[in-house]
Amino acid sequence: MLTTSLFALKYVSVPTVIVIRNLSTISVAILEYFVIGNKIDILSIGTLFGMFFGAIVYALHDLTFSIEGYIWLCVNIIGTSLYQVYIKKVVHMPEMKDIGPISMSYYNNLISLLILFILACVMRELKSFLLYFQSIFLLKIKSICIVFLSCILGFTLSTSAFALNKLISPTSIMVANNVNKFALIILSEIFVQSTLDLTASIATIFVLFYGWLYSQTKKTFGKSLFILATIIFVVLYTSLKFQHATILLTNTNIFSELTSIKQIHTTFLSNFTKTSIDKKNKHVA
Fold first, then answer.
1. d(C-alpha 213, C-alpha 274), whole Å
2. Membrane spanning segments where (predicted)?
3. What are phi and psi of 65, to 5 degrees?
């Protein structure tokens, strides 16, 4: 999950990672149905389809679109989905009853070190790390502090995730993780790089909104919100596509008119030049 996210960020923007990873809610819901046996109602299926089509609209207007980035994100979705559902089964095993969230996080990260070592060898990063360790890290205290802060935040995330898995379903956890990404997208657009056009921004909002709505389908207002959100999304997207087509058609007409004017101008100059040459030849004769 961590390595695929980092590889994806080399090719695509932060909002892209957030929006596409939101599709893991769909795969987790499917796995929950077949593995755990959780039922999915029609409205929940509708919200999942809303997320899916919203993500497609986003991808079509992604200014940082990259095949490599999207492949890494697909691998991330698979890993995230399998991880969430598997952890849900693990935390409810009898032998795991007396093991708390911190212990689970400890063993989880300890085992991950072996996978990290294998990946570092395969990607040939271990040799570079050892060769340039002193010049890269020992002389740059700031780099050490940033990595250390990242480790603390990662440990906090891991521990809270294990504690949360005992209270709510995997899909609800995915929804909770995705809903709070609004602030991250805004901060990324302001401080990192602006990568969203109007259509992509609307698609982002609706993907995350449908993600939140998935957890509200059991409530009385869930159906009304779903219908309203779908109508607004369709109307906004259709309006933007129509506006884009109109602008394109207008620009095409303007280009045609300019071409016609240029042709008229060229013909006029050609006739004028020809007339002048004829008069000159007649005068000489």
1. 74
2. 12-36, 42-60, 106-123, 144-164, 184-213, 225-242
3. -60, 130
Report helix, strand or coil for 41.
coil
Please state, in angstroms and rounded to a whole number, the distance separating the CA atoms of residues 88 and 95: 14
Residue 272 DSSP label: H
Name residue, tokens 């990595």.
147
- State the Cα–Cα distance between residues 148 and 155, nearest whole angstrom: 11
Task: List Cβ neighbours of 76 (8 Å cut-off, separation of 6 or more).
Answer: 1, 4, 5, 8, 21, 24
List of residues 6+ apart from 32 with CB closer than 8 A: 38, 40, 85, 88, 169, 170, 171
- Find all residues with CB under 8 Å of 182, minimum gap 6, and list them: 208
| pLDDT tens per residue across span 73-123 | 999 999 888 888 888 777 777 777 777 777 877 888 888 888 888 888 887
Separation of alpha carbons 150 and 152, rounded Å: 5
pLDDT tens-digit series, residues 229-279? 889 888 888 887 777 667 656 655 554 554 555 555 555 456 545 555 555
Angle between helix 67-90 and 24-31 (nearest 10): 40
What is the signed CA dihedral for 12, 3, 99, 151, rounded to 10 degrees?
-80
CA distances for 86 relative to 35, 93, 141, 164, 282, angstroms: 9, 11, 38, 14, 97
Backbone angles phi, psi at 126, to 5 degrees: -65, -40
